[in-house]
């Protein structure tokens, strides 16, 4: 552990917290961060004093409000979500199905917002959840609009199968991505779970780059898929405009 | 600056970002954090490598997705918001007015969620915005349910007036807080702006402690105030149940 720099050690304390471990004792933190108890104690004290961590009455630490306030400035996190939320709410009102907003981080999708449909398929998504790009509708959109190097690199790695319907053949993936670009929509049917289908469309930033994807997830048996496509595209287009995108001469994909 | 510890210097880089400064150059960061350019460069590199900061094509830094993912674990930030959002949406559907969720940090209210009513009063709230406790409905709720020491300390400081209707008299504030506890609701009329009124109610955690407040903000001329009270209380109670609160023998305040 001595080869890590001071910033790395401090950040390792924050990295000790995840969805499975949202509350940790000092001993937990020291073990998970690979720090001695005395180093962990010193760093946790500094983070708590600043407000990045908070300590409850039982001596358990969790992530603090001040870190959340700083993180709310992340353009791909809460800031994007703030622009998107009214459009996601409208999409939810129009469909009453699971509505999701995701961005790409490396070769994964990260969900930054979702509204759960009350009577819809049980989709186990939470804010901050990650998923590989090739299986989900949002992932296919983000991969299709990623640069050439990303797509080449992605096709060269083994494509994990989640169901027998997941795309695992690189040739089929390339054809699918071309179709996503051509139609402006990705449909992922039974590729994540046997009972669900998602329809996704790209969200563009002010410069026209695809910065996020919106999707609706419905039961696979649902016959309304064609009717969902315009609604999802409309929501994606609304968010894009909210981000400063102007259609101009560019064809909306 | 040499008297600051290594953790303090790293956190000062994060603290350089705020709502007025969501994107900063390395020079900006060095100046705002009070660091030499070389120290700022080293710390920013470590934060960027970890994902706490991201650098765009123009060399400008902003808060990164990974910090947002960690911050999403904050029980008083995104985690509380996740439990609350369906109830806030229902409250919005029922009222079509501005709906807000806030927590207390020291002597201030911090808004952690809001849904903007489309045809309602222009309320300039954003996630992470702060406001003193004595003027807003949510602030009065959080102050009324804060401990005795907080209330004593708060009354001893000067109470800033935002309009001629803001409570600035300590005696009137004490009476108002007693009324908030008795009725389970706070009504702040024209105390923040001349044209707005808010109705707020407390959200309780599993142990019965008040952890947040919900409010609806409407035009002051709106005659529906009495009708809003049960809706706001119902939403607050729903979120409290979602957090594990059980009414039991305790009177809901």
UniProtKB/TrEMBL annotation, chains A, B:
Keywords: Activator, DNA-binding, Glycerol metabolism, Transcription, Transcription regulation. Residues 66-245 form the IclR-ED domain. Residues 4-65 form the HTH iclR-type domain. InterPro entries: GAF-like_dom_sf (IPR029016), HTH_MetabolicPath_Reg (IPR050707), Tscrpt_reg_IclR_C (IPR014757), Tscrpt_reg_IclR_N (IPR005471), WH-like_DNA-bd_sf (IPR036388), WH_DNA-bd_sf (IPR036390). PROSITE patterns: HTH_ICLR, ICLR_ED. One of its GO terms (molecular function) is DNA-binding transcription factor activity. GO terms for biological process: glycerol metabolic process; negative regulation of DNA-templated transcription. Pfam families: HTH_IclR (PF09339), IclR_C (PF01614). May be an activator protein for the gylABX operon. PANTHER family: HELIX-TURN-HELIX TRANSCRIPTIONAL REGULATOR, ICLR FAMILY, HTH-TYPE TRANSCRIPTIONAL REPRESSOR ALLR. This is Glycerol operon regulatory protein. It comes from Streptomyces mangrovisoli.
């Amino acid at each position: 552990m001595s080869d890590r720099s001071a910033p790395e050690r401090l950040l390792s304390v924050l990295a000790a917290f995840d969805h499975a471990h949202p509350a940790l004792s000092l001993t937990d933190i020291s073990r998970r961060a690979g720090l001695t108890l005395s180093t962990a104690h010193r760093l946790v004290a500094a983070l708590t004093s600043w407000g990045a961590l908070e300590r409850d009455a039982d001596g358990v630490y969790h992530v603090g409000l001040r870190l959340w306030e700083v993180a709310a400035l992340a353009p791909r996190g809460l800031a994007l979500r703030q622009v998107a939320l009214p459009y996601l709410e409208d999409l939810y009102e129009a469909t009453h199905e699971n509505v999701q907003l995701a961005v790409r981080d490396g070769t994964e999708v990260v969900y930054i917002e979702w509204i759960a449909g009350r009577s819809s398929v049980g989709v186990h998504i939470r804010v901050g959840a990650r998923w590989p790009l090739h299986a989900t509708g949002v992932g296919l959109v983000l991969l299709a609009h990623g640069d050439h190097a990303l797509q080449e690199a992605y096709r060269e790695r083994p494509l994990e199968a989640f169901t027998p319907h997941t795309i695992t053949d690189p040739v089929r993936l390339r054809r699918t991505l071309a179709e996503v670009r051509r139609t402006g929509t990705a449909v992922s049917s039974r590729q994540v779970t046997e009972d669900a289908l998602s329809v996704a469309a790209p969200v563009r930033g002010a410069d026209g780059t695809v910065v996020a994807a919106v999707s609706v997830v419905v039961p696979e048996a649902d016959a309304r898929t064609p009717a969902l496509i315009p609604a999802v595209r409309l929501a994606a287009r609304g968010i894009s405009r909210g981000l400063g995108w102007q259609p101009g001469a560019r064809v909306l994909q």
